Structures are given as C-alpha cells and as structure tokens.
C-alpha cells in the first residue's frame, strides 16, 4: 500500500467529510506521482455508475431539472468523487450532479478518482448527504443503522462525525420501528420527522398517520394524540382558525414548550432549551459539543450551502 493509501486507511468515521474526501488542490499538486488517481480529469458519463448502497433514494425531479439547466449553461463546477470499479468507475459522492449531467446531455464530467473501501464509501455518501441536508429522515436513519450493524460504529461516534447530538441520532434510529407504511410517508414528505417521532409511541401508528394527513395536524397535536392513546383517552386535536397552526401561549405549560424544543432539535440536530417568562419573553439555548458543530449550525441558520 502506498503512503497515501496508508494515510487513508488510518483514522475513521470521526475524520469528517473534508478529511475523507481530502483536498482536491493537494491532489492536483501530487498528480505527477499518480495522475490516474489524483488529478481532476474528464471521463465519459457512461463510464460512471451509481453506488448501489447510496443512502439517498429519493431525488426531487424539479430540483434535478433546475440543476441540469445550470449544468447545461455552466458545466459541472464541482468534480464528482469516484472510485475504480471493474473497468469503469463507481460514484462515491456526487450522484445528483451525475444524474443532472445526463439530463443536460453532457458526454463527459470532471471527476477525482480515489481508492476507497466499502466502509469509507458509505461513510462519505452519508456525510455528504447529511451535511447538504439532502437525505430525508428515514434515509438518514437507515444509513446510520447500516453503519452500526455492518461497521460497528456507536451512536456517539456517528453523532460526532455528522456534528449532531447523540439524541438526534437515537431519535432517528427509533423511526425504523415504525411500520413501512408510515416510513413511506416520511420518505415522500407527507409526514415530517417530528410527526413520525411522535407516532413511535402510538398504539396504532398507521391509523394515527392517516388522521394526521387527513386533518393536517401539527406535530404538537400528533404528540397529544399519541399520548392520549397510551392513556386510553379519546382526545381530539383543537381546531385552529383558518387551518393555521397557532403557537400555544406560555401558560399552556411545559408540554407545548417541550414539543417546540423537540421540533427545533429535529431541525438542527442539537439539544435545544427554551426558557420563558410569564410576560411572554424568553430565550432559546442551543447546546453544541465542538467548533465543527457550531460552524454547522451557523451555516444552517444562515442558509449557506455546504
């Protein structure tokens, strides 16, 4: 194994996406050593195949068309990361760009060829999609579960690698306990992660999912219905004027505040604390465990794409 290969073999999931993908500019400087494995170069679109274990299964058709239009005008700006696969290549990161390039009728695309193991390939695909917020909750949960089952990663290690809280990873994994019908609705976007998490504790998640979709219930209403099921109650969600979701006042108690904390935690992947005064004022506290996690939060709050 070469020195570069040995460096890649060391380390692990905690290295993060940038370390796993490496620095393309550095590769270009080292291209004299191994031009076929380092430099950015053009290869035929037909010589590239997607990875069968790519965590992302759902590709938004409208978004793909928009990207294809941009690529047709400007080309593929960011190289696709591939690895050798037989006589051709397999995508490690960048399947969406590859699909859009085909729609734009490009014959060649820029790539960086890297030697990656199956474990590293799955980790990179997971990290890239999560950091770009491209996976839905079920896809993300399934990817986490595979990393745990096949590669022995702990929830703590996964949380550090994706710069999210351990509770976020744990909550996602719980979604895999839901019936397939409910999981499918999360994948399609009919149900949010917050809705699905509330249904995990319900006696009949499928019936509750039908009710949520039919009545357009909020996450907090769903949580109350799930809790009512556990108590054997028959509470119905309160209607809101004009169908709009209405935030409960502070006097509604800690249950509504806890629900809001959970919704924000699902969105950011961090622990969230909400404190409020009787006059309606308050504060929101986000707990982060590293500077990388802080940077991730800042980028998400500012809308910056990674």
TrEMBL record:
<dbReference type="InterPro" id="IPR041468">
    <property type="entry name" value="HTH_ParB/Spo0J"/>
</dbReference>
<dbReference type="InterPro" id="IPR004437">
    <property type="entry name" value="ParB/RepB/Spo0J"/>
</dbReference>
<feature type="domain" description="ParB-like N-terminal">
    <location>
        <begin position="41"/>
        <end position="130"/>
    </location>
</feature>
<dbReference type="Pfam" id="PF02195">
    <property type="entry name" value="ParB_N"/>
</dbReference>
<dbReference type="Pfam" id="PF17762">
    <property type="entry name" value="HTH_ParB"/>
</dbReference>
<comment type="function">
    <text>Involved in chromosome partition. Localize to both poles of the predivisional cell following completion of DNA replication. Binds to the DNA origin of replication.</text>
</comment>
<dbReference type="Pfam" id="PF23552">
    <property type="entry name" value="ParB_C"/>
</dbReference>
<comment type="similarity">
    <text>Belongs to the ParB family.</text>
</comment>
<protein>
    <submittedName>
        <fullName>ParB/RepB/Spo0J family partition protein</fullName>
    </submittedName>
</protein>
<keyword id="KW-0238">DNA-binding</keyword>
<feature type="compositionally biased region" description="Basic and acidic residues">
    <location>
        <begin position="221"/>
        <end position="232"/>
    </location>
</feature>
<feature type="region of interest" description="Disordered">
    <location>
        <begin position="220"/>
        <end position="249"/>
    </location>
</feature>
<dbReference type="InterPro" id="IPR050336">
    <property type="entry name" value="Chromosome_partition/occlusion"/>
</dbReference>
<dbReference type="InterPro" id="IPR036086">
    <property type="entry name" value="ParB/Sulfiredoxin_sf"/>
</dbReference>
<dbReference type="InterPro" id="IPR057240">
    <property type="entry name" value="ParB_dimer_C"/>
</dbReference>
<keyword id="KW-0159">Chromosome partition</keyword>
<dbReference type="InterPro" id="IPR003115">
    <property type="entry name" value="ParB_N"/>
</dbReference>
